[in-house]
Each structure stands twice: as structure tokens, then as C-alpha cells.
Specification:
The complex is a heterodimer of chains A (403) and B (227). In chain A, 55% of the residues lie in helices and 18% in strands. Chain A is of the alpha+beta class. In chain B, helix 4 crosses helix 5. Chain B has a six-stranded mixed beta sheet, sandwiched between helices. Chain B has a four-stranded antiparallel beta sheet with strand order 2-1-4-5, covered by helices on one side. Chain B is globular, with a radius of gyration of 18 Å. Chain B has a domain of 158 residues: P-loop containing nucleotide triphosphate hydrolases (Rossmann fold), CATH 3.40.50. Chain B has 227 residues and is of the alpha/beta class. In chain B, helix 6 links the parallel strand 7 and strand 8. Classes of the chains: A alpha+beta (403), B alpha/beta (227). The interface between A and B is medium-sized, with 23 and 27 residues.
Chain lengths: 403, 227
């Protein structure tokens, strides 16, 4: 019986190859665009998430908030309220792993006639742990160098390339930051990740050195801390907030002069943007799938009308209604299945080709493949249902007389 | 074999109802060759649809081979048509772009019989109907001559070894010479013991049968035997 159904279906679809082919093409385009866009969207989401995660793990960042001078907001980051004492107090909270306060500033940096303008971070050795910094050449500065305000600097690979040439070894050489001489003691490993401020175009100096010689005050711009465990992030964040509110003598948390962000928030914000785009794109692709389905229905309705006499004959020789119904349903489903199969392959190829332009690794999940198959089968059944019913419920007498 | 008791058929179209058949009763025994004749509008087509289990009567009883069918469901009627009735349609109605074998095997589609058995039955039926040339069996039906098409149509009607063969204007579109060949084929089937009911509007064609039932205005006008 199944064999009969399959045989009849293939025979009748191959009876009009061009029409079947064009109808299948509609489904192919629909499925392929869904697959390709979801794969690229997923890939983009992954690359955003992984570039944020490369900053560090279980990271919580504390930044100064906006300062109000006589009711006028000076903008985020304008207040100079965080101090090293705050950082030390935070270090006492249980669940906090490492604390790394830092000051940042952009300065003109010169070396051997080359110059660049880049982000200078004054921090402590624990920064290495907090932000996943690893060393390519030389070493990061030590706690002792921080205590003694040593004029030493660690370069990011991009900064090194700009000042000393690609892959040069600048250890032992001198750079001038804001006209002050620093001795280069190391170069960090390349992290990649462009877009959001590059982790490679940086220069690191001891915290106290930056405060005394570059910023000229004792405030700090950032406190990066890590939670000892992923599950503690929320509670640590809360405790830090309460501690800082108490230390800064602020009773209303909406007036806080600092902001706290944890890495999960950043990841989820960024991925929610890309996932919105993914949903939007696949919705548009979904519309083309529906259009493909309407194409199926159109073809099936034409077929049913064309084959009225044949249907009448089949009914007259005693083929049951259900089999007529099944036969047309099978034809519609076969069209969508072939379309779905080719569409998955086409979508897969398309996502690889497209992503090679976008430098994203496409992610084709088995879910989206199963979904595509399920959707194409469902489209076959939904859009084949009405034509099949129309065929099955024909009156054999009238169908036989149909000209 | 066939027993009709007071069969009536009324078509209702909106407020207008038309009585196509109004009280027809007759019996047909096994092995008979009956022609039902009448002008168009006489109700003979409606009668043919009822005899062929394509339609059910509004009132009255119709039993075929001992089975009362006037109250059957659509699926039961389908099964009955497949098992008990062999149709030969006007212009024979073969499927185009389909081989002779597939045409003959059409009534067996979706049955439990394996393909091999179906092919055996089709070949047997084709040979019985006088199409001996096996080379033709895999030809498309539209590549055959008129006489061959008619034999294929008869082979299809006979494949399930039906109780009756119902021929609806089988000579409708044929010239006189071919018509006579077709009618001779039916006579031969009848000599071999098949029960045949023929629907026609041509008296000349009806004369090939052994018994002629004339229908006019939905009732039997005459029921005569040709000896």
C-alpha cells in the first residue's frame, strides 16, 4: 500500500517535471533562506558572546557614575568617587576573588620616532587574572613595582606593532608616555576581538605610577573584580553595591555615584540584540516559506482540476475516498520534502558562502534542520489538505463527465 | 442476481425537485445480457448510476448478488464497486501516459495483493479479453488502436472477476464498424457466462442484447426478450 502510494506520487509528479520543479524551487528558497539566516544569526551571536567572554570570566566591573554639579549631570564616568580604599574594602567581601582597580587615560606615546595615541591603563598585577591577560614576551609588573611607582610599561601587541614594528621584541627599550620615560618589560598575547574597544591596543603601567605621573590625582576609574563562582555573581554584585552606598554615604540607590555591570549582563544585552535580528531575519525568510506553500497549494489545485476525470475513474473502479485523499496529500508532502531537503543543503552552502564575507562562523544546529524538515512537512500537509479533500470528495458521476 | 424494487430517485436543486426515476422494478438473473434503452432524460443514466453503486436510490430497494445496497456508506459502495462491478465507460476512459498494465491494474491499487500477483491477474485478464500480444502490455494506452483500447477497458472491468459488467454507452463515440466489433466482444463475454448490463440510446446497439428494457420518463415502458 505504501509502495502504491509512493509509486503513484512519483509517477504523477514526474509527469509534469517543470511544474513540480518550479513548485519545489519555491520551498527550496524558503527553507534555504531560513536555514542560512538562522545559521548566520547564531554565528554572529556566538562571536559577540565569545568576544565579550574573552575579556575575563565571572567579571564584575564598577565604574564611576555621573556627577551632578548643581543639578547638571556631567555624564557617566565624570565623577571621581572611587578610591583605592573602596577597592580594598570590596576585597574583604566574601565571594570576591580578585580585585583590580585601574585608572585609564589616553595619552600620546612615542618611541624611536614613532608615535601613537592609545589607552593607558594603570593597574595592579591582579588585573592579569581578572581580565584574562596573558604574556607573550617578558612579564607583567609586580606588586612591588606598583608600591614603588616604578616607571615600567607592558604593551599590547597592536601598540607594540605601531611603535616598534610588527613582532619586534621591545623589552628593555624605552617609550615615552605623555613625555615621561617608561621602560618596556613585556608584551601581552594577542586576544583578537575587534569592534568593542580592542583588547590589543593598550598599554599597561603600575597603578600608582599612573596616578602620580599621568593622572595627577588619587582617584581610580574602574574596579574590576571577579566572583569566585558564577553562581555568586548576583550576590556579590548586591553586596558591593550596598558596601559602596554605605561608604559613599548615599541612602537612595538611584542617586548612586557609581555603576556596576557584570559580564553576564553585557553578554545578554549584546546577544539579545543579535538574537532580535536573527528572529527578524528568519521571520522574513519564513514569509517566503509561506509563499512557497501557497505555490504548492496552487499547483495541487490545478492538478486536481486537470485530473478530474482520472479521479472520477479511480472512484468508479472502487478506490476508497481515503486513498484519493492520501494520494494528493502525499504529492504535496513529497514536493515539500524534496524542497526541504534541497533547501537545507542550499541553505548550508549559502551560509558558508555568506559568512566567508562576514567573517562569522555559521552555526547550523540540528534543531534548525529538524525544524526545517518539520515545517516543510507541515506546509505540505497544510497546503495540500484542501486540494486533497477537494479531490477526494468529488462525486464520481460528475467527475467522469468532466470535460 | 440484481433485484430492483420500486426504485425512485429525486434530485433536489434548491426549491425545484426533479424525479428522474419513479418506481422501477425488475430482476436480472445471472448470465443475462440486458440492454437498458431510452432517450436522454428518460432516467436511464440515473438508473445506471444506481445499478453501478455510484449513487443510492431515494427510496426503494436494490440488491446486488444478495447484498442490499440502498443504505450503504460511501466506503462500502466503493468496496462493492471494486469487488462486484466491472465498468466499461463511454470512450473507455483509460489513463493517458500510463501503461496498459497499469491501466488494467488500476482497481487493484491500494489492495493488499503483491505486485506480482497483480501483474499475473492483469495478464490473465488481458489475454481473456483478446489482447494476446504481450509486447503491447508496457505501451502507453494512447499508443493503442481503437480496438485494442476497448480490449484493455474490458480487461480492466474483468480483473476482479465481477458479478456484473456494466457498460455505459460503450459505443458512444465510435463509428458503426467499431461499434459492432465492441458489441460482438460483449456477446462473446456473455456466451462465456458473464452477466452484462448495457446502457444505450441506440436501438440498433440494444438489439445485440438478449433482453431490452426500455425506459421513458423515469418508468419502464417495455421489457422484451430478443430470441
Amino acid at each position: 500500500m505504501i509502495q502504491d502510494l509512493l509509486g503513484e506520487t512519483i509517477r504523477s509528479l514526474s509527469g509534469n517535471k517543470v511544474r513540480s520543479g518550479l513548485t519545489i524551487l519555491g520551498i527550496v528558497i524558503g527553507i534555504a533562506s531560513v536555514i542560512a539566516l538562522v545559521a548566520i544569526g547564531q554565528g554572529a551571536q556566538n562571536s559577540v558572546a565569545s568576544s565579550i567572554e574573552s575579556i575575563g570570566s565571572n567579571l564584575i566591573m564598577i565604574m564611576p557614575g555621573s556627577q551632578r554639579v548643581g543639578g547638571i549631570s556631567q555624564g557617566a564616568g565624570s565623577s571621581e568617587t572611587l578610591t583605592e580604599a573602596d577597592a580594598e574594602a570590596i576585597g574583604q567581601i566574601s565571594g570576591v576573588g580578585v580585585v583590580a582597580p585601574s585608572v585609564t587615560g589616553r595619552y600620546q606615546i612615542t618611541a624611536k620616532g614613532n608615535n601613537t595615541n592609545t589607552e593607558t591603563i594603570g593597574t595592579v598585577p591582579d588585573y592579569v587574572t581578572v581580565r584574562n591577560v596573558s604574556m607573550d614576551i617578558g612579564s607583567f609588573f609586580s606588586q612591588q613595582q606598583v608600591s614603588s611607582s616604578a616607571k615600567v610599561a607592558v604593551l599590547g601587541p597592536t601598540t607594540r606593532d605601531d611603535l616598534f614594528g610588527e613582532n619586534a621584541n621591545p623589552v628593555g627599550q624605552t617609550v615615552r608616555i605623555n613625555k615621561i620615560e617608561f621602560k618596556v618589560i613585556g608584551v601581552t598575547t594577542e586576544k583578537g576581538g575587534s569592534g568593542l574597544s580592542s583588547q590589543d591596543d593598550m598599554i599597561y603601567v603600575p597603578l600608582t605610577t599612573a596616578q602620580h605621573f599621568l593622572a595627577g590625582n588619587n582617584y581610580i576609574n574602574n574596579i574590576n573584580i571577579t566572583a569566585t563562582d558564577q553562581s555568586l555573581m548576583t550576590s556579590v554584585q548586591e553586596e558591593v553595591t550596598n558596601l559602596l552606598l554605605a561608604r559613599h554615604k548615599i541612602s537612595d540607590s538611584s542617586n548612586a555615584d557609581f555603576r556596576i555591570m557584570n559580564q553576564n549582563d553585557i553578554v545578554s544585552t549584546a546577544t539579545s540584540v543579535t538574537s532580535t535580528f536573527t528572529v527578524l531575519l528568519s521571520a522574513i525568510a519564513g514569509i517566503s516559506l509561506v509563499v512557497g506553500g501557497i505555490g504548492i497549494m496552487n499547483m495541487m489545485l490545478t492538478t486536481v482540476t486537470e485530473r478530474t476525470r482520472e479521479i472520477g475513474l479511480r472512484k468508479a473502479v472502487g478506490i476508497r475516498k481515503i486513498y484519493i485523499n492520501l494520494q494528493f496529500l502525499a504529492e504535496a508532502t513529497m514536493l515539500t520534502f524534496v524542497g526541504g531537503f534541497v533547501g537545507i543543503i542550499a541553505g548550508w552552502i549559502a551560509s558558508i558562502v555568506l559568512s566567508s564575507f562576514l567573517s562569522i562562523t555559521p552555526e547550523i544546529s540540528t534543531t534548525s534542520i529538524f525544524l526545517a524538515f518539520g515545517v516543510s512537512a507541515a506546509i505540505g500537509i497544510v497546503f495540500g489538505f484542501y486540494p486533497a479533500r477537494k479531490a477526494a470528495s468529488m462525486n464520481p458521476i460528475e467527475a467522469l463527465r468532466y470535460e | 442476481m440484481i433485484e430492483c424494487k420500486n426504485i425512485c430517485k429525486t434530485y433536489v436543486n434548491g426549491d425545484v425537485s426533479t424525479q428522474a426515476v419513479r418506481g422501477i422494478s425488475f430482476k436480472i438473473e445471472k448470465g443475462e445480457f440486458v440492454a437498458i434503452i431510452g432517450p436522454s432524460g428518460s432516467g436511464k443514466s440515473t438508473l445506471m448510476h444506481i445499478l453501478g453503486a455510484l449513487d443510492t436510490p431515494t427510496s426503494g430497494q436494490y440488491s446486488l448478488d444478495g447484498k442490499e445496497i440502498s443504505k450503504m456508506s460511501e466506503d462500502e459502495l466503493s468496496d462493492l464497486r471494486r469487488e462486484k462491478i466491472g465498468f466499461v465507460f463511454q470512450a473507455f476512459n483509460l489513463l493517458p501516459r500510463t501503461t496498459v498494465m497499469r491501466n488494467v491494474m488500476l482497481p487493484l491499487l491500494f489492495s493488499e495483493l503483491p505486485m506480482k500477483k497483480r501483474e499475473e491477474m492483469a495478464k490473465k485478464s488481458l489475454k481473456y479479453s483478446g489482447l494476446d500480444d504481450e509486447k503491447l502490455y508496457n505501451n502507453f494506452s494512447n499508443q493503442l488502436s481503437g480496438g485494442q483500447i476497448q480490449r484493455v477497458a474490458i480487461a480492466r472491468a474483468l480483473i476482479n472477476d465481477p458479478a456484473i459488467i456494466l457498460a455505459d454507452e460503450p459505443t458512444g463515440n465510435l463509428d458503426t464498424k467499431t461499434s459492432h466489433i465492441v458489441m460482438n466482444a460483449f456477446q462473446e463475454l456473455n456466451r462465456n457466462g458473464h452477466t452484462i448490463v448495457l446502457i444505450t440510446h441506440e436501438p440498433e446497439i440494444a438489439n445485440f442484447a438478449k433482453r431490452i428494457i426500455s425506459v421513458r420518463d423515469g418508468v419502464i415502458e417495455k421489457d422484451t426478450r430478443n430470441i
